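INPUT
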Amino acid sequence: MNVETKLGLDVFKIDKEPHIIIDQEICKSCDDKFCLYVCPAKLYTVNRETGDMEIECSGCLECGTCRIACIHGALNWNYARGGFGIQYRFG
Amino acid sequence: MTDADGEKVEVVVVGAGLAGLSAAYVLGQAGVDTVVVERGDYPGAKNVTGGRVYMHPLRHYLPDLWNDAPLERYVTRETLTMIADGASTAITLDSDRFREEPHHSYTILRSNFDRWLGDKVAEAGAFVLPKYRADDVLMEDGRVVGIVMGEEDEIRADVVVAADGVLSLVAEKAGLRQAQQAKHFAVSAKEVIELPAKSIEERFNLGPGEGAAQLYFGALTKGMLGGGFLYTNKESISLGLVVGIESLMEREPKIEVHEILEDFKARPEIRNLIADGETVEYSAHVIPEGGINAMPKLYSDGIVVVGEAAGLGLNMLLTVRGMEFAVASGVMAAEAIKKARETSDYSAASLAQYQESLSDTFVLKDLQTFRSVLDVMENPRLFNFYPQAVCDIFTKLMWIDENPKPKISSTVIREVLGKFLNWSTVKDGLRMLRI
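OUTPUT
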């Protein structure tokens, strides 16, 4: 089962506003890009055309792994707003 | 009490998890004006465990509360499995002590459980406010005087209880800790897989209501610090793994957590246990592994930090713990606040009572005893060499072919001397003595 299918099983209340903001200037000079593979939901991708780092916040499990792994400080990280984001039914 | 700036309560608790709700329960019962702010739709909406909870500490700190708690199965079978490439060796403890009431530990699903506990807290007289995210702390003259929610809302309080989980942005904003380091944390990914109760009981050799808890370590984490876990719930299995975040960052070639989980599920040890099961939820959670060396300051003027926000989690190799620390710390924080309330003194000096209480109990004593566990585990040989060596020796003993078989004793002696009698294993053994 791939990770997209797994996320499809979860209940998310999707916000228009992203809760994680990426500083593209920092990402451009980052060779590590730990975010691309530490995220258990695989939400980070590099846009092929613009080269920008992008995150699909609507599938965020709000675990915080990227916040800890981004040692270069490119993430203005917050939880989803109150009443939004992942709503676990089992936990 | 309301003043011109907004709501004023005696205590605001940030986060409706086990730590925050336990604190609020005690405060509510004592008639302390308490609000719990929770960003999820309900208590438990954001909360994840492996998971199994050890009940004796919970009963000690909040007697009688748990009698009708929505727990899953009481654990009667404990299994530890060493995973090698293409083989595994397991050891199982099935003990009558685990069948004695009150039961020692239960498997648990937190969304269900925390929601129930939230109702208990409301009955006790505290107010649970869901769908609100605490965004900042209110500071005046260097002391915490409340929280800010969104652009406009704020709640003023005599004390803020930071129970906002492992990342604790509240503790960070209040200046109680520095940025968190990857080496002190692990990431966990878990699936809840539904199966009929009858299938679970047959597959794991359990009576009705009985449960199994299984930990796995070795080749499944591909040389990285971590391991796998499996807990049987009433009608589902919680299956997941934990990997050190720094290990994950440093590993070459790169691998992702969800891929490791899929490889783990495909192993014969697991795939037959979950066959025909239906995955109904995928979750992830960061786990504090830094122990006492990575704790924030636990209190300051007008604030206390409890549960995972305080770094209270402990991997003791054979057991992994957190929820009983959460409940105990929540209760002790509440007791310290009640004491401080007698003199209306919520300064750091007054709230220091909280840390003193923790120091006298298993919470800080266990963290102190197991302070070196991370150093011991940061040893790739633990995850590749040892499980492989044990499985190799066991395979040699069990394997029969057309050739004459050497004596068991000579096989054991030759293999043990060859594999374990060298300087690296002696060094590893000496390191193990630290825990």
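end of record. The first strand of chain B starts at residue 2 and ends at 3.
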